[in-house]
Amino acid sequence: MKAGRRVDVIELEKFIANAFRLKGLPDQDAIDVARIMSQADLQGSDGHGVIRLGQYLKRIDAGGISVRPDIKVVSEKASTALVDGGNGMGHLVVSKAVSLAAEKARKTGISWVGTRMSNHAGPASLHVRALAQQDLIGIYYAVGNANHLPPWGGMKMLLSTNPIAMAFPKGHKEDHIVLDMATTVAAYGKVKAKARSGELMPEGWMIDRAGNPLLDPNRADEGFLLPIGGHKGYGLALLVGMLAGSLNGASMGSEVIDFNSDSETVTNTGQAVCAIDPNAFGEIDDLRARIDKLASELRSSERLPGVDRIWLPGEQGNLRRRENLSKGIPLSAGIVSEVDRIAQDLGITPLPSMGQSC
Questions:
Q1: 26 and 164 co-located in one domain
Q2: Helices 124-132 & 90-108 angle (0-180, nearest 10)
Protein backbone atom coordinates (compact mmCIF):
# COMPACT_ATOMS: atom_id res chain seq x y z
CA MET A 1 0.00 0.00 0.00
CA LYS A 2 1.29 3.45 -0.89
CA ALA A 3 2.09 5.86 1.89
CA GLY A 4 0.96 9.44 1.99
CA ARG A 5 3.52 12.04 1.00
CA ARG A 6 4.22 15.75 1.01
CA VAL A 7 4.37 17.68 -2.25
CA ASP A 8 5.52 21.16 -3.21
CA VAL A 9 2.70 23.60 -3.98
CA ILE A 10 4.35 24.77 -7.21
CA GLU A 11 4.76 21.18 -8.43
CA LEU A 12 1.15 20.46 -7.49
CA GLU A 13 -0.04 23.48 -9.47
CA LYS A 14 2.03 22.41 -12.50
CA PHE A 15 0.66 18.87 -12.32
CA ILE A 16 -2.97 20.01 -12.15
CA ALA A 17 -2.51 22.57 -14.93
CA ASN A 18 -0.87 19.97 -17.17
CA ALA A 19 -3.80 17.59 -16.66
CA PHE A 20 -6.31 20.28 -17.62
CA ARG A 21 -4.31 21.33 -20.69
CA LEU A 22 -4.41 17.77 -21.95
CA LYS A 23 -8.20 17.83 -21.57
CA GLY A 24 -8.50 20.94 -23.73
CA LEU A 25 -8.49 23.92 -21.36
CA PRO A 26 -6.62 26.92 -22.77
CA ASP A 27 -3.24 27.41 -21.12
CA GLN A 28 -4.16 30.40 -18.94
CA ASP A 29 -7.46 28.85 -17.86
CA ALA A 30 -5.64 25.65 -16.85
CA ILE A 31 -3.13 27.68 -14.84
CA ASP A 32 -5.84 29.75 -13.14
CA VAL A 33 -7.88 26.69 -12.08
CA ALA A 34 -4.76 24.85 -10.94
CA ARG A 35 -3.67 27.82 -8.83
CA ILE A 36 -6.97 27.89 -6.91
CA MET A 37 -7.00 24.12 -6.44
CA SER A 38 -3.42 24.00 -5.19
CA GLN A 39 -4.04 26.96 -2.87
CA ALA A 40 -6.98 25.02 -1.43
CA ASP A 41 -4.65 22.16 -0.47
CA LEU A 42 -2.03 24.61 0.76
CA GLN A 43 -4.40 26.10 3.35
CA GLY A 44 -5.79 22.72 4.40
CA SER A 45 -9.09 22.85 2.45
CA ASP A 46 -8.32 19.35 1.22
CA GLY A 47 -11.92 18.62 0.24
CA HIS A 48 -11.58 21.17 -2.58
CA GLY A 49 -8.06 20.66 -3.89
CA VAL A 50 -6.42 17.92 -5.94
CA ILE A 51 -8.90 15.42 -4.48
CA ARG A 52 -11.40 16.90 -6.99
CA LEU A 53 -9.14 16.59 -10.05
CA GLY A 54 -10.33 13.14 -11.13
CA GLN A 55 -13.95 14.20 -10.76
CA TYR A 56 -13.44 17.35 -12.85
CA LEU A 57 -11.63 15.42 -15.59
CA LYS A 58 -14.40 12.84 -15.66
CA ARG A 59 -17.02 15.57 -16.11
CA ILE A 60 -15.00 17.17 -18.90
CA ASP A 61 -14.71 13.81 -20.69
CA ALA A 62 -18.46 13.24 -20.34
CA GLY A 63 -19.34 16.70 -21.64
CA GLY A 64 -20.60 17.94 -18.28
CA ILE A 65 -18.16 20.90 -18.29
CA SER A 66 -17.18 23.09 -21.24
CA VAL A 67 -13.43 23.56 -21.67
CA ARG A 68 -13.85 26.70 -23.79
CA PRO A 69 -16.80 28.54 -22.22
CA ASP A 70 -18.16 31.92 -23.22
CA ILE A 71 -18.14 33.62 -19.81
CA LYS A 72 -20.07 36.86 -20.22
CA VAL A 73 -22.05 39.53 -18.40
CA VAL A 74 -25.73 39.22 -19.35
CA SER A 75 -27.22 41.88 -17.08
CA GLU A 76 -25.57 44.90 -15.50
CA LYS A 77 -26.21 48.08 -13.51
CA ALA A 78 -23.83 50.43 -11.72
CA SER A 79 -23.29 48.21 -8.69
CA THR A 80 -24.67 44.84 -9.85
CA ALA A 81 -24.13 42.28 -12.58
CA LEU A 82 -25.16 38.78 -13.61
CA VAL A 83 -22.47 36.57 -15.14
CA ASP A 84 -23.34 33.58 -17.33
CA GLY A 85 -20.51 31.09 -16.99
CA GLY A 86 -21.18 29.18 -20.19
CA ASN A 87 -20.88 25.92 -18.20
CA GLY A 88 -17.17 26.55 -17.65
CA MET A 89 -15.07 25.56 -14.66
CA GLY A 90 -16.56 27.30 -11.64
CA HIS A 91 -13.15 28.61 -10.56
CA LEU A 92 -13.00 30.69 -13.75
CA VAL A 93 -16.60 31.89 -13.50
CA VAL A 94 -16.29 33.03 -9.89
CA SER A 95 -12.92 34.65 -10.59
CA LYS A 96 -14.68 36.73 -13.26
CA ALA A 97 -17.39 37.65 -10.74
CA VAL A 98 -14.79 38.59 -8.10
CA SER A 99 -12.92 40.83 -10.55
CA LEU A 100 -16.13 42.55 -11.64
CA ALA A 101 -17.33 42.96 -8.06
CA ALA A 102 -14.05 44.58 -7.04
CA GLU A 103 -14.18 47.01 -9.98
CA LYS A 104 -17.75 48.05 -9.20
CA ALA A 105 -17.20 48.36 -5.43
CA ARG A 106 -14.37 50.84 -5.98
CA LYS A 107 -16.78 53.01 -8.01
CA THR A 108 -19.98 52.68 -6.00
CA GLY A 109 -18.84 51.58 -2.53
CA ILE A 110 -20.62 48.22 -2.67
CA SER A 111 -21.36 45.68 -5.38
CA TRP A 112 -23.20 42.40 -5.92
CA VAL A 113 -22.42 40.01 -8.77
CA GLY A 114 -24.36 36.80 -9.32
CA THR A 115 -23.49 33.82 -11.50
CA ARG A 116 -25.41 31.14 -13.34
CA MET A 117 -24.32 28.29 -15.62
CA SER A 118 -21.28 27.88 -13.39
CA ASN A 119 -19.82 24.77 -11.73
CA HIS A 120 -18.13 23.75 -8.49
CA ALA A 121 -15.61 26.51 -7.73
CA GLY A 122 -13.44 25.25 -4.87
CA PRO A 123 -13.27 26.73 -1.36
CA ALA A 124 -15.31 29.86 -0.77
CA SER A 125 -12.55 31.30 1.42
CA LEU A 126 -10.17 31.78 -1.51
CA HIS A 127 -12.68 33.92 -3.40
CA VAL A 128 -13.34 36.31 -0.51
CA ARG A 129 -9.62 36.31 0.34
CA ALA A 130 -8.98 37.56 -3.20
CA LEU A 131 -11.14 40.59 -2.40
CA ALA A 132 -9.58 41.15 1.03
CA GLN A 133 -6.14 41.16 -0.60
CA GLN A 134 -7.38 44.16 -2.59
CA ASP A 135 -8.40 45.93 0.66
CA LEU A 136 -12.08 45.14 0.10
CA ILE A 137 -14.51 43.26 2.32
CA GLY A 138 -15.67 40.12 0.53
CA ILE A 139 -18.86 38.09 1.00
CA TYR A 140 -19.68 34.93 -0.96
CA TYR A 141 -22.66 32.59 -1.22
CA ALA A 142 -23.06 29.46 -3.33
CA VAL A 143 -25.42 26.61 -4.07
CA GLY A 144 -23.68 23.30 -3.40
CA ASN A 145 -23.30 20.75 -6.18
CA ALA A 146 -25.34 17.98 -4.59
CA ASN A 147 -28.26 17.92 -2.17
CA HIS A 148 -27.35 16.33 1.16
CA LEU A 149 -29.78 18.18 3.44
CA PRO A 150 -33.56 17.81 3.80
CA PRO A 151 -35.77 20.67 4.97
CA TRP A 152 -36.04 20.72 8.75
CA GLY A 153 -38.20 17.79 9.82
CA GLY A 154 -38.21 16.28 6.33
CA MET A 155 -36.60 13.29 4.63
CA LYS A 156 -36.18 14.36 1.00
CA MET A 157 -32.82 16.04 0.36
CA LEU A 158 -33.74 19.29 -1.37
CA LEU A 159 -30.92 21.51 -0.08
CA SER A 160 -27.14 21.46 -0.22
CA THR A 161 -24.34 22.55 2.09
CA ASN A 162 -24.74 26.08 0.60
CA PRO A 163 -21.65 27.86 1.99
CA ILE A 164 -21.14 31.37 3.31
CA ALA A 165 -17.74 33.08 3.34
CA MET A 166 -16.59 36.53 4.46
CA ALA A 167 -13.17 38.18 4.62
CA PHE A 168 -11.79 41.49 5.92
CA PRO A 169 -8.65 43.32 4.79
CA LYS A 170 -5.54 43.02 6.93
CA GLY A 171 -5.06 45.11 10.03
CA HIS A 172 -1.78 46.89 10.65
CA LYS A 173 -0.60 43.76 12.48
CA GLU A 174 -3.31 41.19 11.87
CA ASP A 175 -3.62 38.93 8.86
CA HIS A 176 -6.90 38.65 6.94
CA ILE A 177 -9.82 37.45 9.05
CA VAL A 178 -11.64 34.89 6.90
CA LEU A 179 -14.80 32.95 7.71
CA ASP A 180 -15.71 30.01 5.46
CA MET A 181 -18.53 27.77 6.61
CA ALA A 182 -21.06 25.36 5.24
CA THR A 183 -24.62 25.68 6.47
CA THR A 184 -24.31 22.01 7.45
CA VAL A 185 -22.18 20.83 10.38
CA ALA A 186 -19.62 19.57 7.85
CA ALA A 187 -19.21 20.23 4.14
CA TYR A 188 -19.63 17.16 1.95
CA GLY A 189 -16.08 17.61 0.70
CA LYS A 190 -14.91 16.73 4.21
CA VAL A 191 -16.94 13.53 4.03
CA LYS A 192 -15.19 12.64 0.76
CA ALA A 193 -11.80 13.45 2.30
CA LYS A 194 -12.53 11.13 5.25
CA ALA A 195 -13.45 8.34 2.84
CA ARG A 196 -10.24 8.80 0.85
CA SER A 197 -8.09 8.77 3.99
CA GLY A 198 -9.88 5.75 5.48
CA GLU A 199 -11.10 7.64 8.55
CA LEU A 200 -14.48 7.64 10.29
CA MET A 201 -16.57 10.80 10.57
CA PRO A 202 -17.16 12.40 13.97
CA GLU A 203 -20.59 11.88 15.47
CA GLY A 204 -22.86 14.80 14.61
CA TRP A 205 -21.90 15.20 10.96
CA MET A 206 -24.49 12.84 9.49
CA ILE A 207 -27.42 10.64 10.52
CA ASP A 208 -29.05 7.74 8.71
CA ARG A 209 -32.71 7.67 7.70
CA ALA A 210 -33.63 6.13 11.05
CA GLY A 211 -32.06 9.07 12.87
CA ASN A 212 -28.98 7.17 14.07
CA PRO A 213 -25.46 8.62 13.91
CA LEU A 214 -23.70 7.73 10.64
CA LEU A 215 -19.92 7.48 11.05
CA ASP A 216 -18.73 5.55 7.98
CA PRO A 217 -18.13 8.05 5.12
CA ASN A 218 -18.42 5.20 2.60
CA ARG A 219 -22.08 4.84 3.65
CA ALA A 220 -22.87 8.53 3.20
CA ASP A 221 -25.55 7.72 0.62
CA GLU A 222 -27.54 6.02 3.38
CA GLY A 223 -28.17 9.26 5.25
CA PHE A 224 -27.87 13.03 5.17
CA LEU A 225 -25.86 15.87 6.63
CA LEU A 226 -27.11 17.81 9.64
CA PRO A 227 -27.59 21.61 9.51
CA ILE A 228 -25.71 23.90 11.88
CA GLY A 229 -27.90 25.06 14.75
CA GLY A 230 -30.82 22.81 13.88
CA HIS A 231 -33.68 24.66 12.20
CA LYS A 232 -31.60 27.86 12.03
CA GLY A 233 -29.06 26.16 9.78
CA TYR A 234 -31.87 24.89 7.56
CA GLY A 235 -33.13 28.46 7.21
CA LEU A 236 -29.65 29.72 6.33
CA ALA A 237 -29.13 26.97 3.73
CA LEU A 238 -32.46 27.87 2.12
CA LEU A 239 -31.89 31.64 1.97
CA VAL A 240 -28.26 31.34 0.84
CA GLY A 241 -29.44 29.05 -1.95
CA MET A 242 -32.14 31.51 -2.96
CA LEU A 243 -29.62 34.38 -3.15
CA ALA A 244 -27.02 32.37 -5.09
CA GLY A 245 -29.36 30.19 -7.12
CA SER A 246 -32.97 31.31 -7.43
CA LEU A 247 -32.12 35.00 -7.87
CA ASN A 248 -29.70 34.25 -10.71
CA GLY A 249 -31.78 31.71 -12.62
CA ALA A 250 -29.44 28.95 -11.43
CA SER A 251 -30.33 25.53 -10.02
CA MET A 252 -31.95 25.27 -6.61
CA GLY A 253 -33.97 22.61 -4.78
CA SER A 254 -34.87 19.61 -6.93
CA GLU A 255 -33.06 21.21 -9.91
CA VAL A 256 -29.64 20.69 -8.30
CA ILE A 257 -27.60 18.00 -10.07
CA ASP A 258 -25.53 15.62 -7.94
CA PHE A 259 -22.17 15.97 -9.65
CA ASN A 260 -20.80 13.12 -7.53
CA SER A 261 -22.92 10.61 -9.45
CA ASP A 262 -23.81 12.44 -12.69
CA SER A 263 -20.92 13.56 -14.89
CA GLU A 264 -22.93 14.44 -18.00
CA THR A 265 -25.74 16.77 -16.96
CA VAL A 266 -25.03 20.50 -16.86
CA THR A 267 -25.25 21.62 -13.22
CA ASN A 268 -26.14 25.32 -13.79
CA THR A 269 -24.51 26.16 -10.48
CA GLY A 270 -25.11 29.62 -9.00
CA GLN A 271 -22.91 31.81 -6.82
CA ALA A 272 -23.03 35.37 -5.51
CA VAL A 273 -20.15 37.71 -4.71
CA CYS A 274 -20.51 40.92 -2.71
CA ALA A 275 -17.65 43.42 -2.36
CA ILE A 276 -17.58 46.39 0.02
CA ASP A 277 -15.07 49.22 -0.16
CA PRO A 278 -14.17 50.26 3.42
CA ASN A 279 -13.22 53.70 2.13
CA ALA A 280 -16.93 54.36 1.64
CA PHE A 281 -17.27 54.30 5.44
CA GLY A 282 -14.10 56.06 6.55
CA GLU A 283 -10.32 55.81 6.31
CA ILE A 284 -9.13 52.23 5.80
CA ASP A 285 -6.20 52.84 8.17
CA ASP A 286 -8.73 53.49 10.93
CA LEU A 287 -10.41 50.18 10.10
CA ARG A 288 -7.06 48.40 10.27
CA ALA A 289 -6.46 49.81 13.73
CA ARG A 290 -9.92 48.69 14.89
CA ILE A 291 -9.29 45.20 13.49
CA ASP A 292 -6.02 44.97 15.44
CA LYS A 293 -7.68 46.21 18.64
CA LEU A 294 -10.61 43.79 18.38
CA ALA A 295 -8.36 40.84 17.58
CA SER A 296 -6.17 41.64 20.58
CA GLU A 297 -9.21 41.84 22.87
CA LEU A 298 -10.52 38.49 21.65
CA ARG A 299 -7.20 36.70 22.02
CA SER A 300 -6.45 38.11 25.46
CA SER A 301 -9.93 37.49 26.87
CA GLU A 302 -10.40 35.02 29.71
CA ARG A 303 -10.43 31.41 28.53
CA LEU A 304 -12.28 28.35 29.74
CA PRO A 305 -10.27 25.73 31.63
CA GLY A 306 -8.19 23.62 29.27
CA VAL A 307 -8.34 26.12 26.40
CA ASP A 308 -4.83 27.11 25.33
CA ARG A 309 -5.72 29.70 22.71
CA ILE A 310 -8.60 31.66 21.24
CA TRP A 311 -8.47 31.51 17.46
CA LEU A 312 -9.77 34.01 14.93
CA PRO A 313 -11.59 32.77 11.80
CA GLY A 314 -9.06 31.81 9.13
CA GLU A 315 -6.10 31.92 11.51
CA GLN A 316 -5.48 28.19 11.51
CA GLY A 317 -5.59 28.18 7.71
CA ASN A 318 -2.94 30.91 7.70
CA LEU A 319 -0.70 28.76 9.92
CA ARG A 320 -1.24 25.68 7.75
CA ARG A 321 -0.40 27.73 4.69
CA ARG A 322 2.96 28.76 6.16
CA GLU A 323 3.74 25.24 7.40
CA ASN A 324 2.82 23.60 4.10
CA LEU A 325 4.89 26.11 2.15
CA SER A 326 7.99 25.02 4.01
CA LYS A 327 7.29 21.32 4.60
CA GLY A 328 5.10 20.52 1.62
CA ILE A 329 1.39 19.79 1.31
CA PRO A 330 0.40 16.49 2.94
CA LEU A 331 -1.54 14.13 0.66
CA SER A 332 -3.12 10.97 2.06
CA ALA A 333 -2.29 7.56 0.63
CA GLY A 334 -5.67 7.45 -1.11
CA ILE A 335 -5.09 10.76 -2.89
CA VAL A 336 -1.53 9.75 -3.82
CA SER A 337 -2.91 6.64 -5.51
CA GLU A 338 -5.51 8.75 -7.32
CA VAL A 339 -3.05 11.33 -8.67
CA ASP A 340 -0.62 8.57 -9.72
CA ARG A 341 -3.44 6.88 -11.63
CA ILE A 342 -4.31 10.18 -13.34
CA ALA A 343 -0.66 10.64 -14.33
CA GLN A 344 -0.55 7.15 -15.79
CA ASP A 345 -3.84 7.58 -17.67
CA LEU A 346 -2.75 10.90 -19.17
CA GLY A 347 0.84 9.88 -19.80
CA ILE A 348 2.31 12.72 -17.77
CA THR A 349 5.09 12.83 -15.18
CA PRO A 350 3.81 11.76 -11.74
CA LEU A 351 3.58 14.36 -9.00
CA PRO A 352 7.02 14.39 -7.30
CA SER A 353 7.42 13.97 -3.56
CA MET A 354 9.36 16.38 -1.32
CA GLY A 355 10.97 13.30 0.21
CA GLN A 356 8.74 13.20 3.28
CA SER A 357 5.97 10.71 3.99
CA CYS A 358 2.92 11.59 6.03
A1: no
A2: 30
Residues 55 and 105 in one domain: no
DSSP 182: -
CA atoms within 13 A of residue 158's CA, in its CB half-sphere = 13
What local confidence, expressed as pLDDT, does residue 356 receive?
63
Domain that holds residue 274: 65-184+227-327
User: Within 13 A of 143's CA, how many CA atoms are on the CB side?
Assistant: 36
What is the DSSP annotation of 126-174?
HHHHHHHTTT-EEEEEE--SS--BPPTT--S--B----EEEEE---SS-
The total of other beta-carbon atoms located within 10 Å of residue 294's CB is 14
Task: Look at residue 1 in the predicted model and tell me its pLDDT.
Answer: 46
Is 159 found in the same domain as 289? yes
Amino acid (1-letter code) at residue 53 = L
The pLDDT of residue 355 is: 65
Q: pTM of this prediction? A: 0.94
Q: Distance of CA 29 to CAs 16, 26, 125, 253, Å?
A: 11, 5, 20, 30
pLDDT tens string 111-144: 999 999 999 999 999 999 999 999 999 999 999 9
Please measure the distance between the N-terminal and C-terminal CA atoms of the chain and give it in whole angstroms. 13
C-beta of residue 83 within 8 angstroms of C-beta of residue 74: yes
Q: How many CB atoms lie within 10 A of CB 302?
A: 6
User: For 18, how many CA atoms within 13 A lie in the half-sphere containing its CB?
Assistant: 17
DSSP sequence for 70-93: --EEEEE-SSEEEEE-TT--HHHH
Could you say which residues of the chain have pLDDT below 70? 1-2, 355-358
